[in-house]
Amino acid sequence: MTKSKQDRENNSVSAYIYEIKLGGHLNTDWQTWFEDMHICLNENGETLLVGVVTDQAALHGLLKKIRDMGMPLLSLKRCK
């Protein structure tokens, strides 16, 4: 049985909310590729991905996707 997103957020010690800022606008069609991350398009031409990342392996997987897209990574911030 798989855990729900809420269960992972409440029970995982290593789950944190991250903000990842990218150079350029990421089309919202990529939403499914970035799963539970929320895509915010800023007026200054940057994209902000915000969401819960369950552990370090998931964070590295997310960063690999960004690398593979060729978008510049401007910042990575752990919020919680």
Structure, described:
The protein has helices at residues 5-11, 56-69; strands spanning 16-23, 38-41, 46-53, 73-78. The chain contains 2 helices and 4 strands; from the N terminus they run αβββαβ. With 80 residues, it is of the alpha+beta class. Strands 2-3-1-4 form a 4-stranded antiparallel sheet, with helices on one face. Helix content is 26%, strand content 32%. The mean pLDDT is 85.
Keywords:
single chain; about 80 residues; alpha+beta; 4 strands; about 25% helix; globular
Structural class: alpha+beta
**Number of separate strands:** 4
The coarse overall form would be globular
Q: Let me know the average pLDDT.
A: 85
For the record, give the distance between the C-alpha atoms at the N and C termini, rounded to a whole number: 27 Å
Multimeric organization: single chain
Q: Indicate how many domains the architecture comprises.
A: 1
* SS field, number of helical segments: 2
Please give the share of residues in helix. 25-40%
Q: Strands of the biggest beta sheet: in what spatial order?
A: 2-3-1-4
Strand portion: 25-35%
For the largest beta-sheet, the strand count, sense and barrel status come to: 4 strands, antiparallel
Structural Rg: 13 Å
Low-confidence stretches: none
List the helices and strands in order.
HEEEHE
